[in-house]
Structure formats: structure tokens, C-alpha cells
Write a structure and sequence with these properties.
By secondary structure, this protein is of the alpha/beta class. It has two domains: about 200 residues, 3-Layer(aba) Sandwich (Rossmann fold); about 70 residues. It is built from twelve helices and 13 strands. Strands 7-8-9-3-10-11-13-12 form an eight-stranded mixed sheet, sandwiched between helices. Strands 1, 2, 4, 5 and 6 form a five-stranded antiparallel sheet that branches. β8, α8 and β9 form a beta-alpha-beta unit. α4 crosses α5, α5 packs across α7 and α7 packs parallel to α8. The protein is globular and about 65 Å long. The two termini are about 35 Å apart.
């Protein structure tokens, strides 16, 4: 099966004090049709920047992609497309749900106006048909009184309802790929579960691939097929959900999993990874996790670890492992 989204050697640089500093460096992974891939890591690891690169939403005056960076969608290279060409893909074939729906929706326009405008921009439907489509999508995401909600403004809805509106809007044109950037962070646990369940149901109906960006490993365990673990702008581990939770390899992945509270484990304090993610201009020469790693050797500080195959579906970038997966 051919990958729906394939990212190769992605490098993103941002302008700082008249020079460009690399924040994402050498990121490569793919998303298959109908698959849910979780992108996890601490804040500052490059998860959102990666998603904005795919959407073509990075500010051109302050950022640039590396010369060897390649983002292919449906077999076609999309980085470097004109704004007009990107607009045809964005919303139509690739849609995105942002963390805060209140800042994503225009507060002075009704829900209906915003949905109808988006639908008409990407389809041949007239205003009446687009309005009916908007109401239908609101009903699909479990919003009652759909026709009445279309005439309301974002501030009149709860956080969970606004997020449902964003999901309805994102799926209105049946995109092949849905990028969800922390879609449940601002919601309470009950609403969070409902939103995740809704995304799963709609994914099955529309066969949409989902790229889920989150720092919540509980969410990953519940909805994802495969996991990409990012640290300081690089992919440090990639595996199926089962392998990540049952047999993590990279020390950073292990640290993330150990920091999850457990009902069966009585601890006075939760595990914490010492230190913090380095600033882009202060990245170590070798493994970027080395200053925070208890297993770091001299090689870790000097050489960038290669991508090593642990099993058919598991890869890691760590000097602790030789190519056959054994501890070196």
C-alpha cells in the first residue's frame, strides 16, 4: 500500500537575529490511508511545527524549509506549491483541527456563515445545498438543534460544542487526511472521551487518515495505530502502539511512559525526566537527548545516532542499540 503522506528529511529553520536557526532536523515518517498516527513529545519538540509544515501554514517571512526537505501527499510533492495550489488542497484533501477552537473560529461570524463559506470554497454546492450540508455535518458530530446552532456565534457554545463544530467543518469536504493538533487538551475528561470517540466513528465512516499531535499518552493508547516519538526536532522512536507501551527502546520514550501515574503503583512522587528541551540555538552536537539521559556515553555527545531497526515495525535512534536490536 502506498503512503498517503510521506515526509522525508524535513528541516525547518526560523529566523532569529538576522540568521536562520534549525528547529526541525531530519524528520522522516509516513501516514497510510485510514491510519491513525500519534506524534508525541514534550512542548518544544517540534510536533506542531511539523503539522504546520504539512499544511503550508508556516510564515514565509520568518521560516524556510531545508533544501532536501520533501513532503509528499497522495504521491505528489506539496512543499513548494504556490499559495493558490495549497488552498485547493487545504481544507479539501487535508484538514486541520487546532487546539483552541475559540481562536480558530471567527467570533463575529455565525457558525453557519463560517461553515457554508468553507464548503462553497471547496465544492460546487450552492448556498442552500451548502447550508444543508453544514446542518448534516453538525448532526453527524452529535450537535442537537443543528439548524439553530448555525445561526449562533462561537461564544454562545461550550468548549466541547465548539470543538465538535471544528471537527464537522474539517470533515465537511471528506478530506483524506485530518491533522488534529492537541484537539482535546482544553476539554474536561468526559468531553475529551466523547470527542475521541467521535473522531474514531467518523474516521471509520469516511476512511480518513488521522495525524494526532498530543503529549497525552493515554489518548495515544486509546486511538492510535502507530506512534512517532519526537524530541528536540528529531524522531527518536517509531513503533506500533503495542510496542511503544510494552517494549519501549529509547530512554526518552521510557521516561515519558514512567511519568504516567498508575493506580496500581503506589508512589510518593511521579517520575520526572531531569532538565528541559534545549533551545534551537543550543542543540547538542550528537544525540539531542544526551544531556538528560542517564545512559549517555561519549559517543552520544559527539555523534548523531542513526535510525536503527529493532523489529519489523519498530525503529529507534539511540547509540544503546546495535542494528540487530541488541544492546551494544
Amino acid at each position: 500500500m502506498t503512503a498517503l503522506l510521506e515526509i522525508k528529511d524535513l528541516e525547518v529553520r526560523f529566523k532569529k537575529d538576522r540568521k536562520y536557526v534549525s528547529t526541525i532536523n531530519g524528520v522522516s515518517f509516513n501516514v497510510m490511508p485510514g491510519e491513525t498516527v500519534g506524534i508525541v513529545g514534550e512542548s518544544g519538540c517540534g510536533k506542531s511545527v511539523t503539522s504546520l509544515s504539512v499544511m503550508g501554514l508556516l510564515p514565509k517571512e520568518y521560516s524556510q524549509l531545508g533544501e532536501n526537505s520533501s513532503i509528499e501527499f497522495n504521491g505528489k510533492r506539496i512543499n513548494g506549491l504556490s499559495d493558490l495550489d495549497y488552498q485547493r488542497i487545504r481544507g479539501n484533501e487535508i484538514a486541520m483541527i487546532f487546539q483552541d477552537p475559540m481562536s480558530s473560529l471567527n467570533p463575529v461570524l455565525t457558525i453557519g456563515y463560517q461553515m457554508v463559506e468553507m464548503i462553497r470554497n471547496h465544492t460546487d454546492l450552492n448556498k442552500k445545498q451548502a447550508n444543508a450540508k453544514a446542518a448534516e455535518m453538525l448532526e453527524k458530530v452529535g450537535i442537537p438543534r443543528a439548524n439553530q446552532i448555525l445561526n449562533e456565534y462561537p461564544h454562545q457554545l461550550s468548549g466541547g460544542m465548539r470543538q465538535r463544530v471544528m471537527i464537522a467543518m474539517a470533515l465537511s469536504c471528506n478530506p483524506k487526511l485530518l491533522i488534529a493538533d492537541e484537539p482535546t487538551t482544553a476539554l474536561d475528561v468526559t468531553i475529551q472521551a466523547q470527542i475521541l470517540d467521535l473522531m474514531r466513528t467518523l474516521q471509520k465512516e469516511f476512511n480518513t487518515a488521522i495525524m494526532l499531535i498530543t503529549h497525552d499518552l493515554g489518548v495515544v493508547a486509546e486511538v492510535c495505530d502507530r506512534v512517532i516519538v519526537m524530541y528536540a526536532g528529531r524522531v527518536v522512536e517509531e513503533a506500533t502502539v503495542a510496542e511503544i507501551f510494552n517494549n519501549p527502546k529509547h530512554p526518552y520514550t521510557k521516561g515519558l511512559l514512567e511519568s504516567i501515574p498508575s493506580l496500581s503503583d503506589e508512589k510518593d512522587r511521579l517520575h520526572a525526566i531531569p532538565g528541559s528541551v534545549p533551545l534551537p540555538e543550543e542543540m547538542p552536537a550528537g544525540c539531542r537527548f544526551a544531556p538528560r539521559c542517564a545512559h549517555a556515553t561519549e559517543s552520544c555527545y559527539q555523534l548523531i545516532p542513526p535510525r536503527l531497526k529493532i523489529s519489523d515495525n519498530q525503529f529507534t535512534s539511540c547509540w544503546l542499540y546495535s542494528e540487530d536490536g541488541g544492546v551494544g
